[in-house]
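cron nightly-structures :: item 1 of 1
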Amino acid sequence: MIKQLLFITFILIGLASCENSENLNVNSIIDEAIFQSGTHHFANARVKFDFRGITYTSHGKCGKFVFKREFSKDSAFIEDEFNQKRLRRKVNHQQVTLVDSLANLYAESINSVFYFVQLPYRLNDKATQKKLIGTENIKGKDYHKIKVSFEEEGGGEDFEDTYIYWINKTSFKVDYLAYSFLINGGGVRFREAVNFKEVNHIQFADYRNYKPNKNEKVKVENLGKLYENEKLKLVSTIKKTKIEVELLENGCE
């Protein structure tokens, strides 16, 4: 009798788990993806990596960030620091004054790099507007399909861009993402996450970056199927090296 009751209990738990996984709302899906990836640790951590010849560093404290990058150009050593409100630049360790247009350009460039590095943590930014638009199967795996847009206030210079994220229903990894953009004539891109690796409890991924084969207008929502049908062209590989993570004490209230 006891064995029968235990068996029935396990069955009920299993059915409840399946039901819950199918009825997750967009916020719980993203929260689970953040937890599984460990990217919530960015909120209180110092993270350093190299990307395309530039060294990037983020210092997170209670979810507030200071982003830095360092590189050499034309015999000059350049240091940019962006605290999400203002960008400061030093050239050969001396502070220089930048016009607002250049400061904004550099700030957006830095923020863009860290946005992708910190995914899926950044999907809970205040300016994000998230919507679960269904499920999709790509290469035999099932995904939650989430659309993200941005409010104008706090959404940055590219607030009109639209993103799609494919979150694996089993692992909750963001295996794919796509976005539309308006700058430089506009277009769409599709990214495949590869080379997942964990460094001190935070998961990182590299990306293969694709675009449609033909110069035709394609809805960003349809890029997953185009990828599966091999109708996208690889245009670049996005790879980070020398990743270092130092977790800091969480003293937030």
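cron nightly-structures :: done
Residues 1-22, 154-159 have pLDDT under 50 and may be disordered.
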